[in-house]
Amino acid sequence: MDLNAQNLSNRPPGPLVNTQGHISVEAARVVNSYFHNLLKTDQSEFSPRLTVQESDYDNQPFIGISDTYMDHVRSGGIVISQGKLKSISGNIANLTPSGEQIDDIAAVVLATGFKASASLSFLSEDIQQKLSIAPNDLNNTVALAFHSTHHPEVPNLGFVGFYRSPYWGAIEMQARFVTTLFSYGGPSSPSLPAKLAESLKNDTSIERVFSLRTDPRASQFPMGDYAWLSEEFGRALDIEKVPSLTKMPILPPKNKEMNILTAARYPGRNLDETRRKQNENNLIVTEEVVTAGLTQGRFVARAVFRSLLGEWKLDRQLVSKKPEQPSGRFIGTATFSLRNGTSHGREEEFANIEQEGGDQGFEYLYVENGEFVDDANGLRFNATRRYIWRYNERKDKLSVWFVKTDEDRTADYLFHEIDFIPPGEGGKGEDGWKAIGSHLCIEDMYNVQYKFSFSSVNLKQWRLGYSVNGPRKDYSIDGVYRR
Length: 483
Description:
Elements: H1 2-5, H2 25-39, H3 69-75, E1 84-89, E2 92-96, E3 101-102, H4 116-119, H5 125-130, E4 150-151, E5 154-158, H6 168-183, H7 194-202, H8 205-213, H9 226-236, E6 250-251, E7 256-257, H10 273-295, H11 300-307, E8 310-320, E9 328-340, H12 347-355, E10 362-374, E11 379-392, E12 397-403, E13 411-420, E14 428-429, E15 432-441, E16 444-455, E17 458-469, E18 474-482
Antiparallel strand pairs: 1-2, 2-3, 4-5, 6-7, 8-9, 8-18, 9-10, 10-11, 11-12, 12-13, 13-15, 14-15, 15-16, 16-17, 17-18
GO molecular function, one term: oxidoreductase activity
Protein name: DUF6314 domain-containing protein
Keywords: FAD, Flavoprotein, Oxidoreductase
């Protein structure tokens, strides 16, 4: 999403315009509508309390990104309460203004965030007054010039890191700016380069902070749009933005080649050969990842894994060509329970990851329960089965594992890996992404077919089919999973 958001081909031609700060009702409706169209949901499918109402479109957007939060809410692992904490009495929390109570509290996590004023308490009272510190305004705590880098009344003091947004590139640009500013003698120096002096002359950052402190429609990230900030710093430092190094995909709606902004697009001057190659490699890797994602199906396995969490309704048909084996229909549920990755069945790989200090990631315990009915033979019985589903981030690969017969929460050995068919080979159609797998059980071959259907980033439905052929088995299975 970030790479798409920083696709400059979607911006109007000419110099970039800041999209943050004060958010008008019209601008709010445009952005909220964009995200609704992007995600194709009003969030009611996860919880009524998460529903985006029509009246919410007038409010400035506030966005949170999580792999699993929404599906934890849908599955009941997270229960939402709306309001603010008023008090705690024993193990009961009282909320305001609803008066709602949350009981049986086991622990309280104080996610109070970072208060910037405390980190500046070492400064003298005189300097703090010049910086116009507002301790209770967590978004606009300090009134600083040129995008939170300095204050003209304290010319020997620079700031790096006063930036509210997830992009490290802006902080890197702050560091470059402060270094350059002081290398020429500070903000009041007569020897500042022309473009730097002009940028300081035209800067209105301090006035902007004061206006946002009392603005009820201030944006979530009030300091500024990342792309605009990068251009502002680049102009002040006279750093030319380099072009993309590879041929990028052409995307709608403007049918233009992608033009992704990252910090590496502003490499700086006087780089030695090592740093120049590092910067160039950074650009190439980013562009290759984007191209692979759009044209080769990279990260589809990751998207599927993320969206499996929780309970699914399962309807499966089994057709056997051997009279001694039943044919029929299974109806039930399949639940994917998320847990930390385990080493069982892959001990060597797991040990290597630990030795390198890597992340073992997560896995699912898959449990299905339901009833199998064979009307032709008058059979009806309850059935259950379990697997372990894993995602290998290094290989971008999903795999399914058998569980041990005597420890039904523990992986035993590999059933099959899931290989997604590239889009150019018919792997992606209007009805979803196709994938295959296989498993040889002694002399019987399992050929596995998948089809995963998304609505935007959320998996809505998927199919799992087997054709099993060999001297002992000859049957096919077709199962559909729906929310």
